Amino acid sequence: MARNLYKPGQAEPYTLSRSKIDLYxxxxxxxxxxxxxGVSRPGMPAFSLNNAVDALLKKEFDxxxxxxxxxxxxxxxxxxxxxxxxxxxxxxxxxxxxxxxxHYEPAxxxxxxxxxxxxxxxxxxxxxxxxxxxxxxxxxxxxxxxxAGYKRQMEVYQWLFRKNGFSVHPVGYFVFCNGALDADAxxxxxxxxxxxxPYQGDDSWVEPTLRAMKVCLExxxxxxxxxxxxxxxxxxxxxxxxx
Length: 243
Fold this sequence. Notes:
Layout (H helix, E strand, L loop, with lengths): L13 E4 H9 L1 H10 L10 H20 L4 H5 L5 E2 L5 H5 L6 E5 L4 E5 L3 E4 L5 E9 L12 H17 L7 E9 L12 E9 L5 H13 L11 H13 L1
Parallel strand pairs: 1-4, 6-7
Antiparallel strand pairs: 2-5, 3-4, 5-6, 7-8
Helix pairs in contact: 1-2
């Protein structure tokens, strides 16, 4: 079902989620088809185990948030911080309906995103935090093509908080929960090793990208297919037989 379609020349601000910004970065054509025509990429099933890890981590950090105490993970990594207390925390976490948002007037776009967590250091700087769940025997790093999206995600969140008037530390953290694959048996439980990975963000790309997205939205025809987009490649291959 087509929703939130952009109408060329519209006066009202157009709302875009963090994931739509990343869609544009990955493939402007797919973004145009989604925003102008309501033709979205095929959906992915929900990762229920990942969602469970997120929910439990939030409960765990919320207990320290209420007490104003440092989580043991923070102490383990020498991080002087506590979970941030703010009246809008639940709204910021609501990625589907609310999230933290900002009206970027040069492009007349309202950008929004739902964060996992925010910590604060003694200087009052906010530390943006994102939870990730995985299961691998490889070393946990931020290397690899698909993890570039993780970095952009962090940078969009940092930009949104800065635009909302908060002092944001340049280094955010990914809390990786890695399911152990080396146990002798399942025994009804899955053990996780937790790793905190710091990442120094650079949000200088966000505003130029929003302006480019506005130009894309106003275009009468979709951009050319991206060479690296598997969805464009599939549609192109299938169309040769369909026509």
